[in-house]
Amino acid sequence: ELDRSSEDGGDAETQGGGGAMKADRKRRRGSAQRVRGKVQPVRRSSALLSQAVMFGTRKTWDIGHTPCLQELWKTDLSLDASSMDFLMSDGEDEGSFLSLPAAAFSQRPSLTADFTDTNTQKQQQQLLIQSLQDKVCEFQARIHSEEVARQLLVQHHRVKQQTFRGNRKLQEEQSSATCNSVTVLQDSEDLDCFRCLENEQLVIRLRTQVKELEEELLDHSQEVERLRSELGATDLEKQLERLLVENERLKQELKTCRSSELPKLDATAETCSCSCCPYRQDVEVLRKEVSCWEAQARQKEQRLAEVEQLLQDRSCRGEALQRQLEESRRRQVEVEHRLSLRLQEFEDELSCQAAMSPRAKFVSQMVEVESADSQKILAEMQKKNNALQEQLNVQRQLLRELETQLHESQRTCAQLRTQIVVYEGEMERTRGRLEVEVQNLEEEKNRVIEEAFIRAESEMKAVHENLAGVRMNLLSLQPALRTLTSDYNCLKRQVQDFPFMLEKAISEAKQEICQVINDVSSTNQELLRKYKREMNLRKKCHNELVRLKGNIRVFCRVRPVSQEEQDSADARTALSFDSDDDAILYLSNKGKIMTFELDKVFPPQATQEEVFQEVQSLVTSCIDGFNVCIFAYGQTGSGKTYTMEGVADDPGINQRALRLLFFEVTEKAPDWDYSITVSMVEIYNETLRDLLRENPTDKLDIKLNPDGSGQLYVPGLIEIAVQSPEDINKVFELGHVNRATACTNLNEHSSRSHALLIITVSGSNSTTGTCTQGRLNLVDLAGSERIGKSGAEGSRLREAQCINKSLSALGDVISALRSKQSHVPFRNSRLTYLLQDSLSGDSKTLMMVQISPLPGNMSESVCSLKFAQRVRSVELSSSSSSRRPENSSTSSSPTHNSVELDSPPVTPIPLPISRASSAGSTVSSASRTPSGSRRRSQSQLSAGRLKLTA
Ligand SMILES: Nc1ncnc2c1ncn2[C@@H]1O[C@H](COP(=O)(O)OP(=O)(O)OP(=O)(O)O)[C@@H](O)[C@H]1O
C-alpha cells in the first residue's frame, strides 16, 4: 500500500474534484516517506484497520452505551434531576456522560414488574438513544471544525512559505548581481540556504505527519459513526428488545394458560367435588403437575433475569473500553494541538528570519536545533501512536472476548427458549391429557348416571311389585296384627309392672343372699371350730400314739462287721435276732445267752432309711410343738456318728430329720408359717462350746431365763435360720470345721465329746392364730467305754471321767423321772442341764443304743444294753398338757414338779444300773413284761387309749 501510494504520487495532480484532495494527501504522504527514506513504515489507513478493527470499534460503541440503556430501562426511567440535566447538557463535560449518577440506577424493580410498562420504556429508550446520537454528532462536528481550522492554518503556513521563498529568491538575485567579488561569503550563504531548505522540508514532513494523524482520526470517527449507524447500539438493544418481547410473550402465554387451565381444573374439581367421585385424586395430581410447570417457568424467568444481568455486566466493561478510547482521542487532539502550536512558532520564526536577514545564520542554527527537537517530538508521537495501536489491539481482543460471551449468552438464550418451547409443549400435552381425562370423566359420569337411572327404574319396578305383595300381605296380616296389638298391650302392662316386680325380687334376693351369707358364715365358724378341734385331736392322737409307743423309746442298732474285722479271727458275731420279734436281741457273753427286749432292734443290714422311718414320728411331733431328744449311745466305734450324721451318700438322722421338717412345713404352708433355726454345740470335759461361732473355743454358760418363765437358755448361742437343705449342709460344714479347729485329732475328740444339733421349729397359724414352738435335740454322745478297760490316764482319764459323769447323770435324771422323785438332778452335768426342758414333762426321748457285733466288744455291748433297759423302764409324765398356751414358746413346764401323768401312774420296776448290768437274762426276762404290755397296749390303742402299766 505504501509503495503503491509512493508510486502513485506523480499521478495525483491529474485527478480532479473530490479525489484531488485525497490524491494530494497521498502525494504528500509519499513525498514525506521518500524524504524519510524507507526506515519507518507508517501504520495507518482504513484499509489497514481491516475487519477486526471495524468489529472492535462497533463493539466498543455497543458495550460502552448499552449498560446505561439497560439500567435506565430496568429502573423504569425514573431519572433524577441531575441525570436529566446531563442528558440535556451540550456534552461539554465528557466525563459526566460516562459517570451517570448512581442514583439514576439505584431503583431496579423486578423484570416481571417492568413488563407492564414496555411501551413507555421503549419511547424513553428511543429518546435516550436519540440524545446519545446527538451527543455523538456534536463530538464529530467539533472534531470536524477543528480539522477545518487546522487545514486553514496549514494553508496559511503554506502561503507564508511561498512568500518566504519568493523573497529569498529575490535576495539571491540581488546579491548575485551586486556582490560577485566575495566568493567565500557567497558559498556560505548557499550553505545557509540549503539548510533553510532542509528545515523547510522537515517542517513539511511534520505537517504531513500531522495531516496523517488528522486523517487517521477522521477515519476512526467515520468508522465509529458508520459502525454505530450499522450495528452500534442497535444490535444489543435489538437483542434485548427481542428478549423482552419474548419474555413478555411468554408471560402472557403463562397467564393465559393459568387463566385457561385453572378454571378448567376448578370446574373439574367443583364438578367432582363429591366424595364418591373416583377422579378427584387424578385432578389433584394434575393440579400438582400444573403447579410444578409453573414453578419451572418461574425458574426460567429467573434464569433470563440472570442472563440480562450478565449482559449488563458486559456492557459495563464495554463502557470502560469506550472511556479508554475517548481518552486516547483526547490525547491525540492534545498532541495535534501542540504540534500545531510548534508549527506556528516555526513559521513565525521563519517569517522573522525572512524579515531580518542579518540574523539568517542564527535562525538557520535555531532551525537546526529545532529540527532536532522536531525529530524528537516526532519520535515521541510515533511512540504514542504505537502505544495507542497496542491499546487498540487490546481493546479489540477484549471486544472479541465480549463477543464470544455475547455469543454464549445468545446460545443460552436459545437454549432457554428451546426449553420454554419444550415446557410449552409439555404444558400443551398436559392440557390435552387433562382435556381428555375430563372428557372421559364426563363420559363416565354420564354412563354411570344412565346405569343408575336404569337400575333405579328396575328397582322401582321391583319395589312397586313388592309393595303390591306387601299390601296383599297387610290385608291378610291385619287379624294377626290385632292379636299382636293386644299381646303388645298386655306385655306393655307387664313391662310397666316390671320395675316393681324387679325391685321386689331384688329385695327378696338380697334377703336370701344375706341369709345365705349368714348361714355360710356360721357354717364357716362351725367348720373352723371343728377344724381347730380336729387339729387338736389329731395332735393329741399323734401325741398319744407317740406316748403309747413310749415317751422314752429305746432302739438298738447293731453295726455291721467291717471288712477288716471280717478278715480277723474274731469275726464271728455273738449276737442273734428273733425272727418273730424285732424287739428281741440275744447276746452270747461268756457262755451265757442274754436276752434284751427293746422297742426296736435294727440288725446290721438295716438301712439309714429304715432307721429314720422309725424315728420320723418323733420328728413331726416337734412341728406340733413338742420337745424331742434323740440320743445315740454306745461305745466308741459302735456307729453313733454313722447313725446320726451318716455319710455324704447316705445321710443319717440329722439331715433326714431336717429335710422331713422342711417337707412338713412346706405342706402346711398355706395355713402355717414356720421358721426353722439350727444351733450346734459341743460338750467336752463338761465345757459347752458353740460350734457355729467364729471362735468356737469360747465357753458358753447355761442360765435361767430372766423373763421369769423358769426356762433355761444359753446366752450368746448362735441360731442360724435355715430355709433349704442346702442351708443345712452349710451349717453342718461350718460346725465340722469349727469342731476340727478346736481339737488336734478330730476322731478322738469326737469320741470324747457330746455333739448336739438343736433344731427349733416355730410356727404360727394365720387362720386360728395358734403358735407353736418345738425343739428337736439330736445328740451324738461320747463313747461309753469303761475307764478300767481303756486304761486311760491323765487327760484321757479326765475325759473318760467327764464322759462317764455326764452319762451317769443322764441315767440318774431318767431314773429320777421314772421314780417321780421330787428332785431330778438335771444340774449334775452340762448335758442334762442343757436338755432339761427336752427331757421333762411331755417331751419325747429316743435312745439309739449302738452296739458292736464283735465278741470282743460284748462286755461293752452288755453295759450299753443294760443302760438302755434302764432308760426304757422310765415313763415320762404326760399329765402336763402338751398344749402350751398360745404365744408360748415352750412346750412343757420347765421343771419336773409340774409334770403330771396323763395316764394312770406307771409303776416301773426299779432297776439299778449295777444290778441290771449283772442281772443277765433275769433282768431281761423281768423287763420283757412291760415291753410286751406296751406292745399289746399299742395294739389296743384304737379301742380306748389304754393306760399302760409297767
Ligand atoms: N450301720 C452301719 N453300716 C455301715 N457301717 C457302719 C455302720 N455303723 C457304723 N459303721 C462304720 O463303723 C465305723 C465306726 O462308726 P462310728 O464312727 O459312727 O462310730 P462311733 O460310735 O461314732 O465312734 P466314736 O464314738 O469314736 O465317734 C465307721 O467306719 C462307720 O462307717
UniProtKB/TrEMBL annotation:
GO molecular function, a single term: microtubule motor activity
Annotated InterPro entries: Kinesin-like_fam (IPR027640), Kinesin_motor_CS (IPR019821), Kinesin_motor_dom (IPR001752), Kinesin_motor_dom_sf (IPR036961), P-loop_NTPase (IPR027417)
Gene Ontology biological process terms, A to Z: microtubule-based movement
GO terms under cellular component: adherens junction; centrosome; cytoplasmic vesicle membrane; kinesin complex; microtubule
Residues at which ATP binds: G634, Q635, T636, G637, S638, G639, K640, T641
Topological relation to the membrane, as annotated: Peripheral membrane protein
Region (Disordered): 1-40, 875-950
Protein keywords: ATP-binding, Cell junction, Coiled coil, Cytoplasm, Cytoplasmic vesicle, Cytoskeleton, Membrane, Microtubule, Motor protein, Nucleotide-binding, Phosphoprotein, Signal
Kinesin motor domain segment(s): 551-874
SMART domains: KISc
Positions with biased composition (Low complexity): 875-898, 914-950
SUPFAM superfamilies documented for this protein: P-loop containing nucleoside triphosphate hydrolases (SSF52540), Tropomyosin (SSF57997)
Pfam annotation, one family: Kinesin
Basic residues bias (residue ranges): 24-37
Keyword Plastid attached: no
Regions annotated as coiled coil: 196-310, 371-451
Cellular localisation: Cell junction, Adherens junction; Cytoplasm, Cytoskeleton, Microtubule organizing center, Centrosome; Cytoplasmic vesicle membrane
Role this protein plays: Minus-end microtubule-dependent motor protein. Involved in apically targeted transport. Required for zonula adherens maintenance.
Similarity-based family: Belongs to the TRAFAC class myosin-kinesin ATPase superfamily. Kinesin family.
Name of the molecule in the record: Kinesin-like protein
Organism: Kryptolebias marmoratus
